[in-house]
Amino acid sequence: xxxxxxxxxxxxxxxxxxxxxxxxxxxxxxxxxxxxxxxxxxxxxxxxxxxxxxxxxxxxxxxxxxxxxxxxxxxxxxxxxxxxxxxxxxxxxxxxxxxxxxxxxxxxxxxxxxxxxxxxxxxxxxxxxxxxxxxxxxxxxxxxxxxxxxxxxxxxxxxxxxxxxxxxxxxxxxxxxxxxxxxxxxxxxxxx
Length: 192
What we know:
- It is a single chain.
- The protein has 192 residues and is an alpha+beta fold.
- It has a domain at 73-191: Avidin-like (Lipocalin), CATH 2.40.128.30.
- The chain is 15% helix and 41% strand.
- The protein has helices at 2-17, 66-78, and strands at 83-89, 95-103, 108-117, 120-131, 134-141, 152-162, 168-177, 180-191.
- It has an 8-stranded antiparallel barrel with strand order 1-2-3-4-5-6-7-8.
- The radius of gyration is 35 Å and the shape is elongated.
- The chain starts with a helix and ends with a strand.
- The relative contact order is 0.12.
């Protein structure tokens, strides 16, 4: 214990005896770190690339092979959900959705429309995906009329039933309002 206290005292004494040198009053100190170089680099300007990308060839159907051509047409129609849609909720006859959808990529879908609820129409936005025969869509109120009003959100999971010019989709929905579950049920969408 005595050795420790002697060692501690020696360290303390050496720290106190260390002299610091101050600059005379009125003298300006020079920084020990050099100032950074704030010169801006010279921009490099290049001409724009105006080349068009090469088109990828699409395979043609073999002449006389009607089944292959028919399958390709049906597949193209089933992947096209762009257009105007009316969505009815089986157990909520006072509500309906009128949407205009379009593809924003290979499988991404987005759109806008009107939610009619009790005779009043509210603006909505829609986003989701379409893969195979399934359309997954989230429809939300575009804006609340009042700051304290909760917004409606419909999560739709619809499947292709009738794949013609006037397509029909059918499936389920979940209704949320302000993040709270309000109900679920079946829905049918008709292309107008």
